[in-house]
Each structure stands twice: as C-alpha cells, then as structure tokens.
C-alpha cells in the first residue's frame, strides 16, 4: 500500500513540475524573457553574431512586393533601449516601420511623411497610436495597401506581450474610416492569416552613439578622399604646367631651327645666283 501511495505521489509531483515549466514560457515578443537566439533556419556570420550579442530582437512586418502578405524583418536594438519602457519600445517599432524595410523585396505602404503626434500610450492591452494627418492624406487609395499598412503596424506592435490591440488616432481624434475601405474607429486585433512564413531577414538598429561613431568614420573617410583628390589635383596641375612649359620650349626650339634653315637656304640660293652670273 505504501509503495502504491509513493508512486501516486511521485506522479503528481512530475505532473505539477511539467505544468509549472509550461506556465513559465514567455509570451511572444518579450525582449527581456524570451530566447534571443535567431530561428534555426537563419544562419549568421561571426561578425553578425557579434553585433547582436548585446541586443534584443524586435519583429517588424512589411508588405511583400504585390501587397498580398506581410513578411517578417527582424531588427536588433540594445538591451538598454528595450528596457526603458513598453511605450518607448512601441515607439521604436512604429518609427522603424515608417522608415521602411531594409530588404529590397519588401514594401511599406506607410507614407514617409507620417509622424507620431505624441508618445504611444498603453491602455490595458490596447496601444493608442496618434499619427499626423499625412498618415491618411498621403496614403494611396488602394485597398490592398491600406490593409497592409494597418496590419503591419498592428501585427508588429502586438508582438509585445503587453499589447493585444491597436487603436489609431489621427491628430488626436478617432476617425470613422481610413481611406474608405476599413472602419478605423475601433481597436484592431492581431491578424496572423496575412503573415508569410518565409525566412525573415535580420538587421541591426544602431544606437545614437553607434550612429555618431559611424558618421565620424564616414566624415574621416570623406576628408581623406578630399585630401587625396586635392593632391591628385595639385599633381595634375603641376603636370599640366610642366607639359605647357615643355611644349613652349619645344616650340621655341623649332622656331630657331626654322630660322637657321631659312638662313641656310637663303645663303645657298645666294651662292647659286652668284655662280650662275657671268662677269
């Protein structure tokens, strides 16, 4: 009897342990808790792996070439940026979407004039995103592009565990319609049916410090190029002057030779005339 009770107790302990482990698995898109290793189908070079060693991924969705599916583009930001707040992380995501994809095969239907009017607020599980009027006014009147625009933002933001829906505002106000094809005054939930399963691309978002360092390097390279061009220009100018001087000297020499030759001809003709005369 004791043996049976021990076996039953052991089984209960094992089941409890497994359930506890399942409950600890992270929700999608949590940059602090989830495994930061890229999907097994993505291969990274040593340099790429080094660049993302102190960074966390954010998932961005852009349209494919014919605006029928959303495709994932993974970018990496520093851990310090990701830990500031969910609101800050949401703003990074939206601003990166506005900048557009890094991969040439992907498309963004968000007008480049689009800007956030204010910081993104999180109300319960709803992200409130307030855009300027250009977001709607500059958008093409195309149902497919309209759908890709809305859900590229919604699906990207709902990768964060704190966000399940997105409420759009234009100039601080709810609007009934976006461009005539979708009701726009209700919060949009995540939609996975339009997500392509193709292998995502990976990009690294540079911090301000990294961007400044890269700009300094580019400026130094440009300065070196200018100095090299100046030296080449000086050398070309010197070569041209030397060539002009040599041409001038050659021209003077030729003129002197012609003068001597002319004098010689005149003298020969003179003697021929003298010899031909009869005295």
UniProtKB/TrEMBL annotation:
Residues 217-248 have a biased composition (Basic and acidic residues). Residues 90-179 form the GerMN domain. Pfam families: Germane (PF10646). Residues 249-261 have a biased composition (Acidic residues). Residues 195-261 are annotated as: Disordered. Signal peptide: none annotated. SMART domains: Germane. Residues 195-205 have a biased composition (Polar residues). It comes from the Bacteria. PROSITE patterns: PROKAR_LIPOPROTEIN. This is Spore germination protein GerM. It comes from Acetivibrio saccincola. The lineage of its organism: Bacteria, Bacillati, Bacillota, Clostridia, Eubacteriales.
